[in-house]
Amino acid sequence: MKKKVPGSTQTRRQFLHRIGEAGGAAAVYQAMISMGLLVPGDARAAANQARWREQSRHGLNVSLPTVAVLGAGIAGLSAAYELKKAGYPCYVIEARDRPGGRNHTLRGGDVLTETDSAQQCAFDNDPELYFNAGPARISQHHKNLLAYCRELNVPLQAFINDNRGAYVHSRSAFGGQPVRARELVTAMRGTIAELLAKAINAGALDTEISFAERAQVLSVLRDYGALSAFHRFEGSTRAGLQAGTGGLTPAQAANPLAYEDVFLHPDIPYVPSFVETYNQAATMMQPVGGMDRIAYAFAEQLQEELFYGVEITAIRRSGQRVRLEGRAGAEEGAIEVDYAIITIPPTVLRSIDNDFSAPVRTAISQVQVATPTKIAFQSPRFWESEEDIYGGISWTDPEILQIWYPAGGFGNAQGILVGSYLFGGSDAQTFAALSPAQRIERALVYGEQVHPQYRSNLSRGLSVAWQKVPYSAGGWAISNPAPVLQQADGPFLFAGDHLSYLPGWQEGAVISSMQALANLADMTGV
To answer: Which secondary-structure segment (H or E) carries 93?
Structure first.
């Protein structure tokens, strides 16, 4: 079923007059009607007009300053949600027709627009058939975002980041054949443990390990590396079993990978420590049904405050206040508020006319961002039925780098497979420069080296190059946050994951919004 856009009962034109009314005078409202910024024939607009006139008769609560939140990504949504709970008159202004920013989940019928193309998602209508084009996982220690999921009743499920049954592939290693991640990890650990045991037995570490400690250390190494009694790595069932064993016959370990492939080959893409880093380690999570469930849960709470389809064209100072100039469809206008929390991505913000201070403008211009790309396909779940892969990530050559398997819907007939995820760099730039059809072919050519069944199964490809997505113009920051942007610039405050040390993570966006709200509280004394 096509998702409903929360807040869609608000028209674009209503944005300009509604915020103006928040200044506290019915005359402003009437002036905006006379400017043509409200269409009287729109029944929804008429209802909104009546509501505001009623409020004007009784007087508006102007004890708290009005705040405009520019951008309905996770930073803007969480900031507005807290402002509303605190009683601030606040308004979220978003150029897109949806909430979430880079938190974008695509389902059948949705359209993905880039600067030079538009793709319609052709996935079947099924709750499990969705593509998280932006963020797709949440770390267990992202406490603030997880707290909002609980508060907003967003159900979560495990996201499988690490699957030792997934593949590691390099066309120049392992004879060009994909190997299971468990084979590589077992060989790495076993060989390292054997080398260390040899060093201990040769006395090379006598200054670090006493004779009394030696036996205990060697025991740990035997367990860690699956070593023999003679401290040799000769293979282990941890890497998998030889074909035909382990059922009615005793399990026999598969032959271990060659030392030169495991340690001396420079082109192996897999880094075992990736899933042991602080933000990537299990348990990872995802919302049931798509990452945008978080954005829409916020938006559901902000239906009266959230305005879509409004493009900000200038951000000015008006005395101690903020003057916002904008475009809503064919209409243009300007309104004033006391403060603005600006969550527009720096790649977009730097092209908007503004009255920021010189240090702030410089800091915005210096933010560097990644250029991630992704492509997804609908497919029968051959990776489950034929290759025993249930969730996780396969690593392959840098042209496509990663293949993601769905973490839910196990056993279903169809699934959405992410056929490439590139974090940035030259291969991502190459991918972004291709047409959607060319991206599909590229993903198939390199993906079928991992899965020969690729081309006969994958269909309905849908790709995104974030540097070409309007109102995003890139991914997460790859430069450190600028301290000047973490502070207020007069009536301007800033938020976004690029202002945290968790760039690219929604938790970073939430943390930055909390900082902006703290700055606002300091300024208003509330």
So the answer is: strand 90-93
